[in-house]
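Inputs:
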Amino acid sequence: MKKFFTVFSLEARRIFGFRNTLIYLLFVVLSLYFVQTGIHRHKEQIDLKAQFKEIEQRKVGQYATFGQYGAYGIRLLFFASPLSAFFINSSVISEITAKVDSGEILYIYNSFKGRALFSEKLGGFKDFSGIVLLFGSLLVLYLGFEAFLYKDYVRLLSGFLGPLRLFASVILSRLFLLILFFVGIVLMSVFWFHLNGMEMAPSDFQLLLFYVLVAIVMLLCFFLLGCFSGIMKSRYLGFVLLILFWFVFVFLVPGVMRSIISNRADNITSTYRLELRKLQLLMDFEHEVRQKMGGYTKERGHSRAGREMMEKFWNNGFRQILDRERELALEMNRHIDFFTRISTLCPTMFYLSTANEVSSKGYQNFIAFYAYILELKKKFVRFYLDHRLYIQSSQIVPFITGEENIFYARGRLPPHFGTGLLVSFLYVLCLVVLAYRKFRRSLIK
Amino acid sequence: MIEIKALYLKKKIPEISELTLRVMGGEIYVLLSSGENVLHHLVNIFGGLETDFRGSIRVDGHGVTAGADRTQIDLTYVDRGGDWPPTVKIKHLVAFIKRSGRIPEDDFEEFKLRMNVDQISHLRVGDLNEVERRRFLFAVARLRNTRNYLIHDLAKGMPIDFILEFKDHLREMKAAGCSVLYLSNDVFFAPEIGDLIGFMRKGKLLLELKGAKVRRMDLKELYFRFLTEEA
């Protein structure tokens, strides 16, 4: 242990040299800047939510009949958890809205009108988690690269401690400092978050801890890849390898995996086909009404036979329409499962997938939102039918009485999280063994 | 005492063939070889990093093998290599050496005085010139206070004051009964320090002469006979 602390103090001084400290400060400033951006965006979302609620309430007052209410319907807002401030740019879904009406089409959309056109596009690195991936990985690659770069120096130290003890001490010292530094940044960011009047629920804090764990494991992999590059006999080759590792794991592998996912998604039923199937169901009903009642009028609709027809549609046609939507959700769910499963194979993809879900703006929350919309659509159509056919009040009663039209997304862990973590740890273990073997060989002159 | 018996190492070609030599206590053996590879292989074998050899190497009776307990081997290796991190400060290195080397306080104080550590402690390794760096390296090696030394061409290309100081150290080491195996390709420097000088060519020890005898010989001729690539 004493020998470890001897190496630790030497490594700490090497790592926290003037130049490195400047780099760390830049990293801290960038992280806090992007947390601030995330906080700003979340606060904008809070304002938007208030505006949305007010406008939706005012819209109901404008309708003269329930027929209008049913046709225009209600809108639903997807509201991300405050934790999304850390993942504002790298998550899958942005500000999405859904429209529920009495028709067969279900609208889930992201508007490009007005200021929405100029909002930041998703899938980038311009948030806290993106900075950790983009610059954090580069920084730890460099720290790993530098660890055993100077061969004669390493041989001298090895003469005092022996190769294994030196290797273990240097790796553990650097890892400890790296983890300390990263945890420090996260704590600073959380403090900054609270300083801005944002609140984090205990469950969100727990999720953030899981995210930190995944980020640390991913950074460990990059660190060990950096060590591996630094141990190469040719410094030039080592540097090329370092850049290659960075490019491959930060850009290439996620890019290729996304492309695979995207190509595979072509097998999912197209929305046009789905809309057509639903339209067919509706038209079948219309056809039946025309056959049995000679067309639909208000009077015929309010008659006993008309009500029975509508109830029949509610029990059969409408349920089938919802079932079609649920089938699509199931297909999407299977695809998401495939995505998360293959994400576990690469630490950067696993990191991205975890960040996505923890942010509350990931695939799983979309599916939850989808299910919520379907449930609400069912309730809305029932509400519409009841008021249109049975209650027949001249006064328009709002369907939304509280915050039912706001979907509060919450962060989650991705499916196969444990497997992903285990696979990443296995990578770390393999890289440690490979790096040590390479290190032993590098001591040979 | 350093003892090498029938050492044989083959890579693509036999690098070392049946090398046998003995360095007694209080003796300096200079092993000359034109090829740097042979010297590097020897360094690797002594360091336990090269395992694919036949024969035996014993240091004070302890065998040098891959699995050997290195702490039992009373040997210090000094290399002239200068690939060091330029930003590391001397005081931090000195602190590391003090803590990890189990060095007696008196020896450490002597080392500090000899190296003028207080004056150079604020410097970074990158600020030291080559002479200062090798002096530091050798002083560090001496700190370990072992009875056996393996030195790889430390004096090569150094100015006269360094060489004089280095010779003083070697004399002290001899007087203290240390065994020194000095690996080099400098036939002109070898008789100045060596009690015994071995000439290797293509991995074979061809000739072993006393230092005093070599001093009387034509060194240029020896150089052309053993240490040029054409030889």
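Chain B has two domains: 2-74+147-227, 88-145. Flag for discussion at group meeting.
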